[in-house]
Amino acid sequence: MAAVASINSLPYEVRQTIYSLVARQTDSHYGRGRLASTIAHYAAVSREWQEEFERFTFRELLVTPKRLKSFSHIVSSPRRRAIVQTICFHVSLDRYEPHLDAEQETSVERRRSTEVLTTALGSFFRAMTHWRKSDTSPLGLDLHLLVDSPNDCSALVGKNGGPLVTARALMSYLKLDLETLSLPYLDVFSGFRCTGRHLQPTSILDIVSRLRALEYLDVELNHDTIRNRDVHQRHHFAVDLERHAETVRVLSLRRPSPMLTPSPAPPKQPWSTFYAQMRLFSQQCESFEFDDCIDAAQFFAPFLVGPGTEKPPISQEAPFWTRLKRLNMRNSYLMKAPYLRVTNRTDALVSVHNVLVAAGRAACRMPELQFARICQYVLTDGQLEWFVLMYERYAGKVTLRMRGFTPGKTLVDAWKRSIADKGIELTIYRETNDPNAPEL
C-alpha cells in the first residue's frame, strides 16, 4: 500500500489556502473577532495543523482573574506569544438581585467593586511582567479591559437587537484604589481600551502611566456636565494626559452611555484648561477621534476668531498638527442634555457651519492629513439630519465629499485655501441633490 502523502508535500500557498478555507467554513463569524471553539479541534490533527490553527485561536485571548495561572502556562512559549494580538482581560464584578437593576451601587458596594477591580488588575500586570517586547507580534499587542457584572445585561432589547444594560450599570462608575495599587511597568502593550462599566479617566491614566510603549489609547471621558465629578475628571484627564501618555500617537475619545438623569452642560469655555490641553496633546497624534465628549466648535475656536468673538489668550495660538494623518469627529445637536448645545435648529445650523469652516481653516495646519470625517447631526421634530464632510488625500490629489447640505462660499473657500497651500489638486463632490438641503 502506498504511503499517504503528507500535507507538507503540498506547496506553501496551497497549504495556506486549505487552512484558511477550513477556518472560514468552521466559523461563520471568522473575521469579526469571534472564533468558534470547534476551530481548536483541528489543532489536534497533527503538529503542523496545531501550529497553523493556533494562528487563529491565539490571535485574540479572553482572560479572567481565575484563569491567570493557566493563561500564563498556555502562552509560555515564544511562538504562541508572537501570535497574540489582543488580550481581553475580563473582570467580573459581584452579582446583584433583579430588584436592584434600577438602583445605584451603595458606598459599600462601590468599595467592593473597587477592591475586586484593583486586586484583579494588580494580578494581571504581575503576570504580564514575564512577557518581553520581543515576544509580541510585529503588529503590536492590545489590552482590552472589560469590567462588568453578570447581571448588567437587561431583559430589554435595544434597536440593534442586542440586550440593553441595566440602569445600575449605567449609574455605577468605577475607580481604582490608587493608595493600595502599585502596578509594575510593562512594555509589551501598544494599545489600550476599556469597556463595560465606566472607569474614571483618572484611574485609566494611572494604568496608562505603567504602559511604557503605548501608542493607541481609547478612553471614555466623563459627560460634559456641571456635575463636580465630571468637571474634576475631565480637567485632570486633560492636564495629566501629556505626562502619562507621552508615547500615544492614536487617541480615541468617547462619551459614556446616555445619562438617565440629564445634567446641564457647562457654559462654553473654549479657552479653558481642558480645551487648551486637548489642543496641545492632539498635536502629538497621528490619529485623533472624538464624539460628543468634545465640542468641536470649542476645540477649533482658534480658527473662528473674528468680529464678535472672544479673543484667545496669548498663550493659545492656533495649533499646528505636524503628525496628524487621520481626523474623525462627531457631534450632535438638540439630542439630549448635556449635548443640546443650542436651543433651535437655526442656531444648530450656524454652529455646524462654523465647525465645517473652522475645520477647513485648521486643515492648512495639518500638512500630513490623509483622511478626515466631520459628522454633525441635528435632531429636529423627531427627524435626524446628517451633515457630513469627508476629506481624502491620495496620490497627490484631494477629494472633498459633502453630504446633507449645500456648501456656501465661505465654507468652500476655507477648504480651497487650505488645500491650495499644500499645492494639491482638489475635487469637490456634492452628494446631495435635495433642493431643500440647507446651505452652510
Q: What coarse outline follows from CA principal-axis ratios?
A: globular
Alpha plus pi helix count: 12
Average pLDDT value? 86
Radius of gyration: 25 Å
Helix/strand/pairing category: alpha/beta
Q: Strand portion, in percent?
A: 15-25%
Helix content: 25-40%
Order of helices and strands: HHEHHEHEEEHEHEHEHEHEHEEEHE
- Low-confidence parts: 28-36
According to DSSP, the number of beta strands is 14
Give a description of the structure:
32% of the residues are buried. It is globular and about 70 Å long. It is built from twelve helices and 14 strands. It is an alpha/beta fold. Helix 7 packs parallel to helix 8, helix 8 packs parallel to helix 9 and helix 11 packs parallel to helix 12. 31% of the residues lie in helices and 20% in strands.
Describe the structure using short key phrases.
single chain, 440 residues, alpha/beta, two-stranded antiparallel sheet, 12 helices, globular
Summarize the structure.
The chain has 440 residues and is an alpha/beta fold.
List the helices and strands and how they pair.
Layout (H helix, E strand, L loop, with lengths): L11 H15 L20 H11 L2 E4 L4 H7 L3 H6 L2 E7 L14 H22 L13 E7 L4 E5 L5 E3 L1 H5 L19 E6 L4 H8 L7 E5 L7 H17 L5 E5 L18 H10 L4 E4 L5 H4 L26 E8 L11 H19 L7 E10 L2 E12 L2 E7 L5 H13 L3 E6 L10
Parallel strand pairs: 1-2, 2-3, 3-6, 6-7, 7-8, 8-9, 9-10, 10-11, 13-14
Antiparallel strand pairs: 4-5, 11-12, 12-13
Helix pairs in contact: 7-8, 8-9, 11-12
